[in-house]
Amino acid sequence: MNPVQPAHAGIDTAAVTALLTRGRTLPQPRLRAAVARLAPPMDTVAAYHFGWIDAEGRPADGDGGKAVRPALALLSAEAAGAAPEAGIPGAVAVELVHNFSLLHDDLMDGDEQRRHRDTVWKVHGPAQAILVGDALFALAGEVLLELGTAEAARAARRLSSASRALIDGQAQDISYEHRERVSVAECLEMEGNKTGALLACAASIGAVLGGADDAAADALSAYGHHLGLAFQAVDDLLGIWGNPDATGKRTWSDLRQRKKSLPVVAALSGRGPAARHLGELLRKDATKSQAEFDDFDEAEFAARAALVEEAGGRDWTAAEARRQHAAALRAVSDVDMPSAVRERFVALADFVVDRRR
Questions:
Q1: In a domain, 151, yes or no
Q2: Which parts of the chain register pLDDT below 50?
Q3: pTM, whole model, 2 decimals?
Q4: 232 in a structural domain
Q5: DSSP states of 212-278 as a string?
Q6: Over the Cα atoms of the chain, what is R_g?
Q7: Is 242 among the domain residues?
Q8: 71 domain residue, yes or no
Q9: Which domain, by its residues, includes 79?
Q10: Is 87 helix (H, G, I), strand (E, B) or coil?
Q11: CA geometry: angle at 329 spanning 347 and 263, to 5°?
């Protein structure tokens, strides 16, 4: 699936691959060292979550996710004129907070699969998922503050604010599942908190550690915020129409979970017959138990997905991803940085809205 085509042709796939590989590998020793501080069995549970071991404790070679956030933290250090290594503590801290949120989200959403493996709560139980998530969150602050510099303190403040916004976004997401109507503005606010805030932090934290002033860091943060909204818009498309073999989730995943994602909310805001029919179905769905909902066959979910598309939700969300992509690039247009670094920011933004999975 090609969720969204960028406004301009030509994505530098080699540059993106190099960025993501660097984001996955360069912070890895520091990330493993941080996780090793956890008391047993939390260290083992965290290692399973990161894909370093399997459920039986044997060494494994998990993919570790897309690594967009640590890649951004390293790249932002270069935007400030520093070496990418200056951003490693920020990359580790952001990755720890991101994975704290994944551990808790999987439990709250009842997701049994992540990265094509059973989730932590499924393997080790809900209590361990909660505890390890909390521990990773605490580690993130330690990794920054133990540097003992003024830049580290500034970085920690940004991470703390982003973490609070992320939690706000998750709370909004859960509450929206039980509401009959959610506006497009509310949905964008939720996704700006849940996804945009941490990507904004990732895009600026390396620069802060590299000595950038607040004006430059704020511009990079705006890039990350808009990139996060584009990223989430594409994820919302994949959450309904993504290939399960690639996403690692069931068909029509977000519809099964009754999520008020952007395509659904945009579709419901329409005035045509498809929007009205979709609204009627979702109102009836709200009266059903989850067990009844789980008994739906594929045709039921396919019908809802077709209505979302007919009502314009799919096209609107793809267009929103392109709008946010353009806004991200405008945000850094005036930031003074080496041209090669700027090109990598563009390449990464292009990748986010044209993921094929």
A1: yes
A2: 1, 7-9, 357
A3: 0.92
A4: no
A5: --HHHHHHHHHHHHHHHHHHHHHHHHHHHHS-HHHHSS-TTHHHHTT---HHHHHHHT--SHHHHHH
A6: 20
A7: no
A8: yes
A9: 13-225+331-353
A10: helix
A11: 90
> Residue 63: its pLDDT value, please?
64
Total structural domains within the chain: 1
Tell me which residue has tokens 């579709």: 267
Least Cα distance to 184 among 301, 7, 353, 319 occurs for: 319
H runs (alpha helix) in the chain: 13-25, 28-35, 42-50, 68-79, 88-109, 120-124, 126-145, 150-176, 184-191, 197-209, 214-241, 244-247, 253-256, 262-268, 273-286, 290-294, 298-310, 313-331, 339-353
Residue 27 corresponds to which amino acid? P
Would you state the pLDDT for residue 256?
86
Per-residue pLDDT tens digits for 116-131: 899 999 999 999 999 9
Tokens of 275: 């929007």
Write b or e for each residue in 204-217: b if 16 or more Cβ atoms lie within 10 A of its Cβ, otherwise e: bbbbbbbebeeebb
Going by DSSP bridges, is the β-strand pair 113-114/117-118 parallel, antiparallel, or unpaired? antiparallel
Question: Using CA atoms, how far apart are residues 278 and 51, in angstroms rounded to an integer?
Answer: 39
Whichever domain contains 173, its CATH number is: 1.10.600.10
